[in-house]
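Hi support team,

I submitted a single chain yesterday and got back a structure, but I'm not sure I'm reading the C-alpha cell output correctly. Could someone confirm the output below corresponds to the sequence I sent? I've pasted both exactly as they appear in my results page.

Thanks,
R.
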Amino acid sequence: MDVKMPTASETFAGRMINFHRFVKRNLVAGILQRCRGAATAVAAAPPAVRPVGRSAFVVDVDSLLVEPSPAAAFPPFFLVSVEAGGYARGLVLLALYPVLRLLGRRMLVKGMTMVCFCGLRRDKAARAGRAVLPKHFFRAAADMGALGAVRALSKEVKVAAVSRSFPTVMVEPFLKEYIGFDAVFGKEVKGGARRFAGVTEDGEPDAERIGRVLKKTEKKPCLYPKPMVFHDGRLAFTPTPAAALAMYIYLPFAVVLAVVRIAIYVLLPWRVSGVVAALTGVKVHVTGATPTAGGHDGAGGRLYACNHRTLLDAVAVACALRRPVASVSYSLGRLSELLSPIPLRRLTRNREEDRRRMASMLARGDVAVCPEGTTCREPYLLRFSPLFAELTGEVTPVAVDARTSVFYATSTSPVAKSFDSVYFLMNPRPEYSLQFLEPVNTEDGKSSIEVANEVQRKIANALGFKGTTMTRKDKYLLLAGNEGIVTTKEARAVKSDTL
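Hi R., thanks for writing in. Yes, this is the structure output for that exact sequence:
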C-alpha cells in the first residue's frame, strides 16, 4: 500500500503558518505599540523595522528573504541567470562564484549582479522575477512569517520593503504580489531601454523618497500572504553552488537518459514498454483497479478526465492501462507531437469544432482529456471546462500526480514548451501516480457544469488538493503576461473561442 508523503508545498505552508504566528506575537506587536506612541516599544522594536512618518514603516528584508550566510544569495542569482539567460550564463556564474566569494559579501553581490544581468533583456529578467523567483523565496525565505506578518497591521499603516542585496526586478513581484508590501526598493541595475548593463547604482533610497512613494500608493484589498498556485522555470531544486555543480555534471547523462526512455516508449509495445522504462528509473504507481476497454454502452471508447500535471499525463494513463489512449491538447509543440507514443490532436478553442474532434476520437477508442486546459504544479486544481461532460454518458475521473527532482516538465514559454516531455524524462527518477476513480454518470439530469465540478471535486479529494475557479487565462496572465493563445495555421481557420 502506497504511503502518501507530504508534498513540498505542504511543508512550506506549515513553515509559513508557524512563522506567521510567532511574528504576530513579537514583530507586529512591537510595531503596533510604536504606532500608539509607547515609549518602550521604540527600544523593543526589531532593528529591521524603522518608522517613516506616523503611519508608515520600512522593513529591511534581506535578512528575512535569505539566510545571513554569503552562499544564501547565490540561488536567486543563479535562477535568473539560467531561466532568463540560459545554461551557459549560469555556468559562468558558477565558475566565478568561488573567486567572487573571496572578495567579501558586498563585492560578491555586485559581481553576481554583473554576471547575471550584463546584456540580459529586461523582459526576460522581469519574467524570471515574476514567474520563477517567488517559488524560491517561498521555499527558502529565512523568516517567511515575519514577511507575512506585515499584513496584520491596520489598513492605515503602509509598509515598504528595502533590499540592499537584490535588484528590484528580482524581489518586487514576490514582496508586492504575494506578501503585500506597498512599495519595494532594491538595487537598481543600469542599462538601456531593452537590456541591462549589469552595473548597480550606489546608495539607497532616503526616508523622504520612501515617504513620497508610500503616500501615492493605494493599498490593495487582498488577503496576504497569497498562496503559490502558479510558477514557472525549469529547475525543481534549490540551486546551491554544490547542487548547481551536480546539475551541470548530470546534464549530459540526463540528455542520453531521456533519449533512451523516449525510444523505449516509441518503439516497444505498450505491454512491455512500462516494464523496460521502469528499469531506467521511470516509476508509474497505480492505485485501484484499471477499467476495461470500451465505453459504458459497449460502443466506442472510454473517456478519462484527468487533472493536468504534465504533457505526459495521457501517456501515464496508457502505461497504467497497457493499451494506447488518444489525447487532445491546446498548446502542442511540434517536437512533442513527433515524439509522442500516443495519438495527439490539437484543439482549436472553437467549441463546436473541438467537440467534433473529441467525439470522432472517442468513437475510435479510449480518450484521455485534461479539462483544466493547462498544467498546475502545486496542489491545486483549476476550473474544469464542461465540454468533456457532453461527449458521452459516463466519464472516468483519474487523479494524477507527477514528481520530479531536478527539472520541471512544464513551461509557459512557446519555445520551451516543446521540450516539456524531454525534461520530464531527463529527471533521474521521474514518478507518476494514478488513481482510477468511480465513473461519473453524465446523463442523470445534471448539467455539464455540475458534472465537471463533481469530477473536479472527486479528483481533489483523492489527491488532497484544493479546487479553485482559476483558469488557463489566469495562469498565463500572471506568468507570461499573455492569455496563452498560440496561433497556428490550423487554428486560423476557425474563430478563436474558449473551451
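A quick pointer for reading it: Residues 1-5, 15-47, 488-499 have pLDDT under 50 and may be disordered. Let us know if anything else looks off.

Best,
Support desk
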